[in-house]
Structure prediction request, 340 residues.
Amino acid sequence: MRETLGHPTHGYYATRDPLGAAGDFITAPEISQMFGELVGLWLLFNWLGAGSPDPFNLVELGPGRGTLMADALRAARVRPAFLEAMRLHLVETSPVLRDRQQETLLPATAGLEPPQWHEALADVPDGPLLFVANELFDALPVHQFERSDAGWRERAVGLDAKGAPAWCHVPPGSAFALIDPGMHALPPGSIVEVSPAAIALAGEIGRRIADGGGAALIVDYGSARPTGRPTLQAVRGHRRHDPLEAPGAADLTAHVDFGALARAAGETGAAVWGPVAQRDLLQRLGIRERANQLAAEATPAQAADIDAALARLLDENGMGSLFQALAITGGDTPPPGFAG
Ligand code: SAH
Prediction:
């Protein structure tokens, strides 16, 4: 999964911009500017709540086309001191998407400290942290463990007699130690996914916030605990694809285990909130009011687009409930959208 997505010459992300109608999938910030704007206000509110640290690091992991961050910074202009204190760090492994992000974010930060790009969160300097990642954790590699009648075994990818990639079984590797103990009671046939990379990343975010203060918002599709069914999937041209076919040509994702992220971040001493459904978060942050405000100044065709985007982001049978948000903070009051 790591090589398929991240290989520097053959990897899926290294070689293309996958977003949008002509690409393989679309994300919330690409559907509507309202998503990034509300995230920007969420970050601003948490900065004020943390005592307006100056300077602070604003970090986005996996910024795609830079759309979310550009919309967030526009919304944050209501407090110029936020933008002046901000040191913007973008963590992106894809050279193609880095170029896209520069086109979007260099104009959006004109007159401010220039943004910096990094390969990994570890390269971002310590200090107060405001953090956002949308649809990043689902791209981190998972291990799959299957409960058979004879006990647990790991699903792996080997080669069949013709030399093509094929599923096989091996004894559980070290990642097995990370599965939620509650999962041991699952019946034979169950498959549990674990992402050591996601757990390590959540722990690093928690540690930085516990040490330096701040807040993180993680949005992705997933649930509070694994269901016992595999979620690893490949998507190409907005359709399901065989994950073992044409590695590097299709996106690979797995649902995010928010319970595992919450435990890893919580162990550092940071406070963890949620997960809450995207629908609830966006409504509590005022997306309906923002949509009405935009529609009041829009042409009828634009107003119809705003309505359609709103419905899609909040859809109870789609993005609104499949996507969940987790917050990590340094304080003991719930951040906006996470109370009640
Ligand atoms: N957040 C954007 C893009 C989501 S697509 C949006 O919501 O539209 C996933 C993004 O994560 C891409 O920018 C991809 O290049 C990046 N990415 C994938 N694996 C990564 C990794 N290990 N480290 C940093 N970025 C990664």
Observations:
- The longest strand covers residues 214-223.
- Residues 13 and 94 are 6 Å apart (CA to CA).
- The two ends are 37 Å apart (CA to CA).
